[in-house]
Amino acid sequence: MPRVRLVDEDGGQVGIKQIGEAIEYAYSKGLDLVEIAPQADPPVAKVMDYSKYRYEQEQKAKQARKHQSQIHVKEIKLRPKIQSHDYNTKKGHVERFLNQRAKVKVTIMFRGRETTHPERGRDLLMRLAEDVKEIGAVEQPPLLDGRNMVMVLGPTKNAGLQRSSGETTDAEAEDTQRSEEAVQGDGGREAPAPPRDEEPPAGEEVAEAEAELPSGRAARG
C-alpha cells in the first residue's frame, strides 16, 4: 500500500504513514489530506482545510495582481535643428514623463537634406540623455529607423523623487496621457507644415504613446 510522509495542520511531522491511515488521521480532525510534494519519496501530504487553503491562495494572487506595476511608454518628437527654447520645452516633457515612472521614446525626424547628417540627430539624442541622466537611463541607444532616429529612455531609481522644472500637476498630466494623441500648441488645431529647414513651434510634434505591460507573474503560495 502506498505510503506518505504526513504533516499535520500546524506543520508538524507526524511521520510516514500508510495512505489509508493518513486519510483517517485527517478525517478525524474534520480536515482534508492534500498532497503537497508528489515528487518526494515518499510523497508529502498535509492535513488542512482545503477550501480555506484555496481561498487564501486566491487572495494572494489577487494582491499580487493589484500591486503589479504598469509600464507606460510616452513619445516625444524632435527636429535636428531644434531651437534652444524649444529643446528646453521638450526636455521638460521628458523629465515629467520619467518622473511619472514612464519610459520615453524620443524620435528625431529628418527632412530633406537633413538625412545626409544623421550624426546631428544622434548628437541631439545623446545631449538629451546626458541632460536627464539623473532620472533617465538609455535603454535603447539611438538607431536609424527610415527617416527617423529613435532612442528609448527608462526611469532610474531617482525618478519621481522630486518634481522636475517641466513637471505639471497630476490633473494636467492626465490630459497628456491619451494614447497616440498629438499635443498641439494651438489648442488642438493642426498647424501648417513648416518649411523644410524651419523648426516647428515648441508645442508641435509632441506625441505620446501609452502601453501597459505586466511587470511580473502573480505569486504562488
Descriptive terms for the model:
10 strands; disordered C terminus; Ubiquitin-like (UB roll); 221 residues; 28% helix; four-stranded mixed beta sheet; alpha+beta; 2 domains; rod-shaped; Translation Initiation Factor IF3
Report what the structure shows.
The structure is a single chain. The protein has a 4-stranded mixed β-sheet with strand order 2-1-4-3. The longest helix is centred in the N-terminal third of the chain and has 17 residues, at 50-66. The protein has helices spanning 19-28, 50-66, 84-99, 118-131, 170-174, and strands at residues 3-7, 13-18, 32-37, 44-48, 73-78, 103-109, 136-145, 148-155, 181-183, 206-208. The protein has 5 helices and 10 strands; from the N terminus they run ββαββαβαβαββαββ. It is rod-shaped and about 85 Å long. With 221 residues, the protein is an alpha+beta fold. A hairpin with a 5-residue loop joins strand 1 and strand 2 (13-18). Helix content is 28%, strand content 27%. The chain has 2 domains: 3-53, Roll (Ubiquitin-like (UB roll)), CATH 3.10.20.80; 73-208, Translation initiation factor 3 (IF-3), C-terminal domain (Translation Initiation Factor IF3, 2-Layer Sandwich).
Structural Rg = 29 Å
The largest sheet, given as strand count, sense and whether it forms a barrel, is: 4 strands, mixed
Total strands: the figure is: 10
Overall SS class: alpha+beta
The whole-number mean of residue pLDDT values reads 78
Kindly identify the CATH topology of the largest domain.
Translation Initiation Factor IF3
CATH class of the largest domain: Alpha Beta
Fraction of residues in helices? 25-40%
Name the CATH superfamily classification of the largest domain.
Answer: Translation initiation factor 3 (IF-3), C-terminal domain
Q: Please state the second-level CATH architecture of the largest domain.
A: 2-Layer Sandwich
Number of helices: 5
